[in-house]
Every structure is written in structure tokens, then in C-alpha cells.
Amino acid sequence: MSKVKEYLKKYFVTAMGAMAQGLFATLLIGTIIKTIGQYTGLDFLVTIAGFASGATGMAIGVAIAIALKCDMLVVLSCAVVGSMGNAIGAVINNGLISAWAVSAKGSAEGVFYSAGPAGAFFAVIIACEVAKLVSKKTPVDILVTPIVTILVGFGASFLICPLVSYVMYYLGIFISTATTFQPFIMGVIVATVVGIILTLPISSAAICAMIFSPTALEVAIANGTEEGFMLAGGAAVVGCCAQMIGFAVMSFKENKVGGLVSQGLGTSMLQMGNICKNPRIWIPPTVAGAICGPLSTLVFKLKCQGVAAGMGTCGLVGPIGVIADTPSSFPMWLGLILLCFVLPGLISWALGKLFYKLGWIKPGDLTLEEKK
User: Fold this and answer.
1) Torsions phi, psi of 161, nearest 5?
2) 293-305 per-position pLDDT tens digit
3) What angle do CA 88, 75, 9 make, to 5 degrees?
4) What is the pTM of this model?
5) Are 116 and 211 a contacting pair, CB within 8 Å?
């Protein structure tokens, strides 16, 4: 059992965390730069953003390989593997995989769906583990290691990416269709679930980059459920913001300004140790997300897509994503301020006070450990 936990932590905490950093340094930063460029009219920023987004697969590959403590040749070769895994996918026609493909050009009839970050994630992990078996084991390591890493990565991408595409295809269809027809229920579910994932030691950014990918948006447009897809992304942003702002405000008395900034603009994951000791402290920000989610989908109709949907107020990326994807209007700005900042703070603060009176939360339960 301990071995299983070790592997789960290695791949779904360490590797996924590294994947999120790769996404942050490319796709996510590209989104921010593109938004600034569009609002300021500086076209060169939009050009830069295109290059940043284009390097997503390579950055994921390098980040995961470093996190898995691979040798330098493996790390560099994984830039190729990450690029392949991110690009390769399948053509899906009438709900079935009709062809393996690397792009929509010249493909069979149907919708091309790339595996995206999810494909890169699995392909790179497999390539890394096999490459470790040969790295620095031969006198011609400089040839053997890159060749093995890239070939294994291609094989893994060829086998896994179409299946990943298929799963993500139907997951995207479910979320966009369900949100289109049941915006209230899905507003609650998406905001709550994604918010919880953000606080857990796994990457909500990476997961949202897979679910709310540009390819998934294309499928939603083709199916006539684009509105539901984008609204679900907006609810995800709100749920993440609720966790971060909620914990930041609720614990202000104990953590002061430093805690407010580290949680409100950093991550609510800092509270994970305290949650393990007293799970009740997780209730106020989670309830805040469940309340704000349907307000987002039904009232203010905030929209978002891609990695920004899973970032919350971390570097203000979530709100920036909403600004980029929601038509600018007074309701949008009002909803952004209320649902991403004001209401999560007020609801979490009020419930926190109640829980203190009930004895469910005690002084010290929300105190962050100081780094030595």
C-alpha cells in the first residue's frame, strides 16, 4: 500500500504539479500577455503570446522530466515528447474514433481532437521511466538516450493520445451539454468540484487545461453547446476564487497580511495541512463556491476557457481569463468583483465566525506554518 501511495504522489502530485508549472510558463502567461495586447492595441504582445502558447507541450515535457529527476538528455528529449503528446489525437466521427491524427489537415471526415496537456502528461511519464533504464548505461549515451526517449514517447503518444482524446471529448460534451440545460445544478457542481481540486495537492490548472481546451470548445461549438461550455469555465473560476479568497479572509486574524496575500494571490493549498487536522475549516469556502457558482452561470454569465479556469485568483489569472472571454459590460464587471472577491470573502468570514461560536473551529486551526 505504501508503494502505491508513493507512485500516486510521484505521478499525480509531483508530476502534475510540474505540468501545471509548464502550463503556467507558456499557455497561461501567453493568455495574460494576449489579453493585455488586445486591450492596449499592442500587436507585438499578441505575437509573443502565440509563441508562448505554441511552446506548451515542450514546456510540459521538460517540467515533468525535471520533476521526475531525469538526466539532462532525457529532460531535453522530453521537450519533443511533450510536443508530440500535446499535438497527437484522433478524428472522432459520429462519436467514434475514425482515425489517428496529428492535425485536422488532410484527416478523415469528422472532428479532430488533440489529447492536449493530458496526452503530453502520460506520454512524458512513460518516456521518462523507460529512458531511465538506458540513460548513462552505454558508451554512446548521447545517441541512445535521446533516440529511446523520443521513440518511446512517440509510441506512447500513438497508443494513448487517441484514447485520451476520446475520454476528454465525451467529458467536454457532458459538461457543456449539462451546463446548457441545467446551469444551476452544474454551476454548483463545477464550482464546488474544481474549487476542491484547487485546494488539494493536485493541479486544478492542469485539469482545466484538459477539460476546457480549445479543441473542446470547437466540439462544443459544433454541437451547439458553446454557451454551456464557457459558462462552466466561468463557474470553475468562481469556485477556485472562493477557496482562495475564502481561506485568505477567514484566516486573516491568525495569518495577517502575509497570509492574505499568500492564499489570496498564491494558493489555498497552503491550508491542506490544517484541513487534514480539522476538515470543518474547509466548509465555509466550499459553501461560498457552491453559492457563487450558480450566480455565475445564471445571473452574471461569466465565461472562461483553458487553463485560466483552474487558476482562481492566483496572480489574478482567473479573473483575467474571465475578462478575456466574457463580453465587456457592467454586469460582467459587477459579477467579476462580487463573485471572485466580495461574496467569497463575506460568506467565508460569516460562516467562519459561526463555526468559531459553535466550537467547530478553534484558534490556531487556520494558522499557516512558517517556512524555516
Assistant:
1) -55, -45
2) 999 999 999 999 9
3) 85
4) 0.80
5) no
